[in-house]
Design goal:
The protein is α/β, with parallel strands linked by helices and about 325 residues long. Helices cover about 35% and strands about 15% of the residues. Strands 1-2-3-4-5-6-7-8 form an 8-stranded mixed β-sheet, with helices on both faces. The two termini are about 35 Å apart.
Length: about 325
């Protein structure tokens, strides 16, 4: 259903119930975000490229965040021959309150994963995004595996563009350097939310640490593209959202993504509000005015949504 009237864009005051009672918070916010807007509905995946890629992932025993995180864009992206691989297993050592990925004790590292991942992209994928669960149990958080995946893809399909969406590595500069030295086309680390909500939504992370990682990445390789993303609808106010956008840009970040939070289950944080498409358009306009090379903003936008185009837009903006 298209929006058939103009929406006035103005700063809003988000509903902020007491966080002392999760059940009351969930009940109150359900009244605000009870129905999913029509603009969030997408066709069920099932095209030929999607089916072939799904079969390939199972055959090679690979995980994708597209599936593990219940991404609504999986059908569209896989039809465009773009996928986001999730390395280092499918169990995370952290428990972010908005994330659908399982948490607990991870399995041992799979030494053959980088080769299998590279084989999946051979002659098939035009743009590869590599992300991972958090592996706080490993000395470098799995940074060596990111580097190995990049090297194997470069060896087999040098024409494939590579983006990495990395964890914070608990602030380790050594781990970050291992990834940066592997020369991905884009290095991404998502801020995810505003500073006020960080301990609630992302208890294992730190707002300042995420910004510091982005700053260091640009310092280590000033010519490389850096990227970050923010989830909208967790309870942030408009001014807080703009402050987070400015904080990310202050670290020299080139690309920003902004998308609607969709609650994976009733065990996750409730949706505080839905943003209209016109509001995302305004956020994109504001972000471009802040100096970003490219801003991808929309209800269905995720970190790797249209990632194959983001590289082109950001490079063209130089």
């Amino acid at each position: 259903m298209a929006v058939n009237h103009l929406v006035e864009i103005r700063p809003f005051v988000a509903f902020r119930p007491s966080l002392s009672s999760p059940s009351l918070m969930a009940t109150a916010l359900t009244q605000i975000a009870a129905r999913k807007p029509a603009w969030l509905k997408v066709p069920a995946p099932g095209g030929p490229n999607y089916l072939a890629l799904k079969h390939l992932m199972r055959e090679l025993k690979l995980h994708t965040v597209c599936e593990e995180a219940h991404c609504p864009n999986v059908g569209e992206c896989w039809e465009h021959k773009a996928a986001t691989f999730m390395i280092l297993g499918d169990v995370c050592t952290r428990n972010c309150a908005y994330c659908a990925v399982a948490h607990g004790t991870p399995a041992p590292l799979d030494a053959g994963e980088p080769v299998r991942l590279a084989e999946a992209g051979r002659g098939w994928l035009q743009h590869v995004v590599i992300t991972s669960v958090d592996r706080d149990d490993l000395p470098n958080g799995g940074a060596e595996v990111f580097a190995a995946c990049i090297a194997e893809i470069r060896r087999r399909t040098p024409g494939t563009s590579i983006e990495v969406l990395i964890p914070d590595f608990k602030g380790s500069e050594r781990a970050l350097r291992l990834v940066v030295d592997a020369k991905p086309d884009i290095l991404n680390h998502n801020l995810e939310t505003i500073e006020r909500l960080y301990r609630l939504a992302r208890p294992g992370g730190r707002y300042a640490r995420a910004l510091e990682l982005l700053r260091r990445a640009k310092q280590l390789d000033p010519g490389a593209l850096t990227k970050s993303g923010i989830i909208c609808g967790l309870g942030e106010e408009w001014d807080e959202l703009l402050t987070a956008m400015r904080d990310v840009r202050a670290q020299g970040v080139d690309i920003l993504t902004l998308g609607q939070y969709l609650r994976p289950s009733d065990q996750h944080l409730p949706i505080a509000r839905y943003y209209a498409p016109a509001e995302f358009a305004e956020l994109r306009r504001v972000g471009m005015a802040m100096g970003y090379r490219h801003v991808e903003a929309g209800p269905l936008v995720r970190s790797s949504y249209h990632a194959w185009e983001q590289v082109e837009h950001a490079t063209a903006a130089v």
